[in-house]
Amino acid sequence: MKAGLVILLLVLNTATALGVVNNQYKKRLVVIEMTQLENKRDDMIDKWSQLLVEHAAWSANSRIERIAIEQLNMKYEYRDFLYLKI
Amino acid sequence: MMAIGNIKQQNIRHIVIVLFLMLAAFSVSARVAYVHIEKSEFLKQEGERHYKRNIPIYAYRGNILDRNGHELAVSAPAISIWADPDDVLEHSEAFEVLAGQIDVDFFALKRRAEKTTNRSFMYIKRQVGPRVADIVAQSGLDVVGVIKERKRVYPEADIFSQVIGMTDIDYQGVEGVELAFNEYLQGANGIRSVIRDRIGRSFEVIETPRDKVDGGEVSLSLDRNIQYIAYSELKRALSYHEASSGMMVVLDAKAGRVLSMVNYPSYNPNERSSLDEFALRNRTVTDVFEPGSAIKPFVMAAAMEQGVIDEREILDVNPGYISIGDKKVSDSSNYNKLNAAGVLAKSSNVGMVQIASRIDDEYLAEKLRSYGLFSPPGIELPGESSGLFVSQPDWGPHYKSFLSFGYGAATSALQLANAYMVLANNGVRRDITVLDGDNRVPGMQVMQPEVANRILRMLQGVVQAGGTGAGAATMAYQVVGKTGTAKKLKAGIYQDDAYIALFSGVAPLSDPQIVVAVIVDDPRKNGVYGGQVAAPVFSRVVSRVLRYLDVAPDKAIDSFAVNTL
Fold first, then answer.
1. How far is the C-alpha of B239 from the C-alpha of B234, rounded, in Å?
2. Quick check: B73 and B154 in contact, CB under 8 A?
3. Using an 8 Å Cβ cutoff, are B377 and B256 in contact?
4. Taking CA atoms, what residue in A is nearest to B79?
5. DSSP B82-101
6. At B228, is the pLDDT very low, low, confident or very high (cuts 50, 70, 90)?
7. Element (H, E) at B476
8. Which residues of chain A lie closer than 8 angstroms to B203, CB-CB?
């Protein structure tokens, strides 16, 4: 009876000890995964920022006006303000 | 006998061994107790020093947007190159080659390295693009380190530079909106305590004493398209008139929001190697100038509010000049007789001096301040000027006369636009803001609504044929405003060959939407007067901006050009 109780406690003790080790291991894996995800998120934010800058540069008024004048031979006309198709 | 002797000997040995083991156990226990009680804190710190690392969690600096959500300032990834100063000196030949490839002055780098040999870190180049990082990687120099950072990029470059300002190399706002909203934009970095493995990976988070707070986005009331229109037109005019500088403010006439605020010359905040200090300032907010005749509508408004002038009254402005003390002040020609509207349309100094003489001094001073000409516009930007204005009790005998045509007091471009907004807004003055959003403080009635409307109607004469600002008229919209030309003051003397030309006005007259103030400093060619230099800029800007804002023309259809396709 007494020996059985000791063995049971020993088994339980060993099991909880293994459980603690296992949990610690899993926690570390999760932390590593979290760090990787954070790095990935930062990379995506960087990429997004880069795209925002590129978008702003491509759509800049000065660039559009330059292309309109140089490549499409357009010009800004103040006098002929309104065109009516009759 | 022998057996008894052996047993005794064994007992003694047993007791000695037990005592020895007990002593050993006690020593170990005592040491454990000592370490845990006495040395606990020290050992904990030592342990943490070896495995625990406090790593910063960097907050993102918020973007700055225009009122349509277009980015005006963005935080983009950047790379900084570093090395140990000793390595720079040791591998100087390899570093010389690398320096040439990444556009760094090697001799300056070497001098810096020689000065910092007591340290183990120095930047070689900060905040560079990925191309430079590739060059470093290809160089094969394994003593060169790369740090990932972020830098501020301004996609609109020189068009918004003075308003948006910029950050320094450490990411702190030093000018404009970047400075005004620095705390909100930058957020707060966090700290995380971690345990790292031998290759530097964090595998356990001990605690996060402070989490990061990313900076907020700032949405401005400025519109990048309107800003571009204003900037390009101002630049064009400055080139045509060979002027030294210029500025322009476009306000939303109803809400007091800034739609555009431009200065020229400007600078590119992305390229700081050739920054000019003069170009850094947002002069529309900080710099003041004598407004010249642009002040006249407000002196007239004060006279009408006090009831000392009747619109129908005919003033005798013959012979076209008047003596004020030892100074002779003239009109551009002798207009003989003018009514109040004519005084504004012809910008008659003689007429204005007569009208101002009837206004109570204290009343005029208080009114001009309340209209916003000489009081702070309440904008969020740094360096806001309150204008220069002599307090009423200190007015000299002729001060009011000179003030009536805009001399002896100075105002900023923003203050001038703010005052014209009072006319456009039925006499209500509002604080000016660069922020988007609806939660505005209600304005204050500073001018009688009927006076504001009558002044606007009177100003129609200015932009009609024969008026001083006829060049401000547009094809499709009715506009009103007032020209101004002020001699520049240098070393206390008014110059006869240096002027500030300006025009400030409101459009469209039927339902004012925008207020525009154009100031051109020291025009040298193709005219020097406000009507010749600033009024045409006003006209072009108003035409383009109102069309962009989808405002219906309010001129009769047969009065402007109609083309058939």
1. 9
2. yes
3. no
4. A46
5. EE-HHHHHHTHHHHHHHHHH
6. very high
7. none
8. 28, 31-32
Residue matched to tokens 């966090």:
B190
pTM: 0.84
For B190, the token pair is: 């966090």
**Cα–Cα distance measured from residue A67 to residue A11, given in angstroms and rounded to the nearest whole number:** 80
Please state the φ and ψ torsions of residue B442, each to the nearest 5 degrees. Answer: -60, 150
Q: Name the token pair of B63.
A: 């973007």
**Per-residue H/E/C for B440-472:** CCCCEECCCHHHHHHHHHHCHHHHCCCCCCHHH
Strand partners, B188: B213
The CA radius of gyration of chain A, in Å to the nearest whole number, is 35
Chain B contact set for A78 (CB, 8 A): 475, 540, 543
Residue B563 has its nearest CB partner, among A34, A52, A83, at A83
Angle at B207 between CA B203 and CA B212, to 5 degrees: 100
Neighbours of B8 (CB within 10 A): 10
pLDDT in tens, B381-434: 999 998 898 887 788 889 999 999 999 999 999 999 999 999 999 999 998 999
Nearest to B561 among A49, A55, A82 (CB): A82
What digits encode the pLDDT tens for the residues B545-555?
A: 999 999 998 88
B255-281 pLDDT, tens digit per residue, is 899 999 999 999 999 887 777 778 888
For residue B151, what is the enclosing H or E element? strand B144-153
**Is B561 a residue whose pLDDT tops 80?**
no
CB B259 within 8 A of CB B226: yes
> Which residue's entry shows tokens 């002055």?
B105
Site of tokens 């009408």:
B304
How far does the CA of residue A1 sit from the closest CA of chain B (Å)? 31
Q: Quick check: A84 and B60 CB within 8 A?
A: no
CA B289, CA B517: separation in Å to the nearest integer? Answer: 13
Closest CA relative to residue B268, chosen from B153, B157, B177 = B157
How many Å apart are CA B50 and CA B48, to the nearest integer?
5
Size of interface A-B (CB pairs under 8 A): 87
Confidence tier at A80 by pLDDT (50, 70, 90): very low
Q: What are the tens digits of pLDDT across the range B232-244?
A: 999 999 999 999 9
Six-digit token string for A53: 């800058």
- Clarify whether B293 is annotated catalytic: yes
Contact status, residue B209 vs residue B191, Cβ threshold 8 Å: yes
Structure tokens at B428: 């209500």
For B247, residues 6+ apart whose C-beta sits below 8 A from its C-beta are B234, B262, B263, B264, B283, B284, B287, B413, B519
User: What are the φ/ψ torsions at residue B90 (nearest 5 degrees)?
Assistant: -70, -40
Which 31-60 residues of chain A touch chain B by CB within 8 A? 31-32, 34-35, 45-46, 49-50, 52-53, 55-57, 59-60
DSSP-derived secondary structure letter, B252: E
Catalytic residue chosen out of the listed positions B161, B260, B293, B348: B293
Q: What span, in angstroms and rounded, lies between the C-alpha atoms of B290 and B288?
A: 7
pLDDT in tens, B13-41: 999 999 999 999 999 999 999 988 888 88
Among residues B226, B82, B239, B53, which one has the least CA distance to residue B148?
A: B82
Tell if the CB–CB gap between B77 and A50 is shorter than 8 Å: yes
| Rg (alpha carbons) of chain B, rounded to whole number | 36
Best residue in B74, B193, B546 for a mutation probing chain A (most A CBs within 10 Å)? B74
